[in-house]
Design a protein that fits this description.
This protein is mostly helical. The chain contains six helices and two strands, in the order αααββααα. α1 packs across α2 and α1 packs across α4. It is globular, with a radius of gyration of 19 Å.
Length: 168
């Protein structure tokens, strides 16, 4: 099971917005820079999320994006389905080949798909944001590592957040 680049970027963008929830509109340039997502591609991803009703936006110099509802009300499954469609990468797909027209493996793929769907439909962006904040807190409290070129740990070592925003 693979999540496409589009799905991964959508998760990263919504997680970024969840981490900055309540701080007003977030410009696309900031999201793209923090998440290392090409802005042109991010525009397409955010448009799909907006069409699905997960984001709202405002154009112009003071514009940007924000979540339409609290992060605890948005699941990873909703975001993936918004950008991947209902038959996302976590849904079973069979070609009907193999023994008994592929039924042996189709049952397995269905079970796996159901298990993955249960996880992503339960996991909210509030929970993901909390995980990031906890990891950042632990990273700040741990001593510098020798693998760091400057001898200091970055403020935010997670993939999801490259801003200098302290956890609440």
């Amino acid at each position: 099971m693979r999540i496409s680049a589009k799905g991964e970027y959508a998760i990263k963008a919504v997680l970024d917005l969840a981490l900055h929830y309540g701080r007003g509109l977030i410009p696309i340039q900031e999201i793209a820079a923090r998440q290392a997502i090409p802005q042109r591609y991010l525009e397409q991803v955010l448009l799909a999320l907006k069409r699905a009703g997960l984001l709202t936006s405002k154009r112009g110099a003071t514009g940007g994006y924000h979540l339409t509802r609290a992060a605890e009300a948005i699941t990873v499954g909703a975001v993936l389905r918004a950008v991947e469609g209902t038959g996302g990468p976590f849904e079973a797909r069979g070609d009907g080949r193999g023994r008994r027209d592929g039924q042996d493996l189709m049952e397995l793929w269905d079970e796996i798909s159901e298990a993955v769907s249960r996880v992503i439909d339960r996991l909210t962006f509030s929970e993901l944001a909390e995980r990031v904040r906890e990891r950042e807190w632990a990273d700040r409290r741990s001593p510098p590592t020798s693998s760091s070129s400057s001898g200091t740990r970055p403020w935010c070592a997670s993939i999801a957040c490259h801003s200098r925003v302290a956890p609440p």
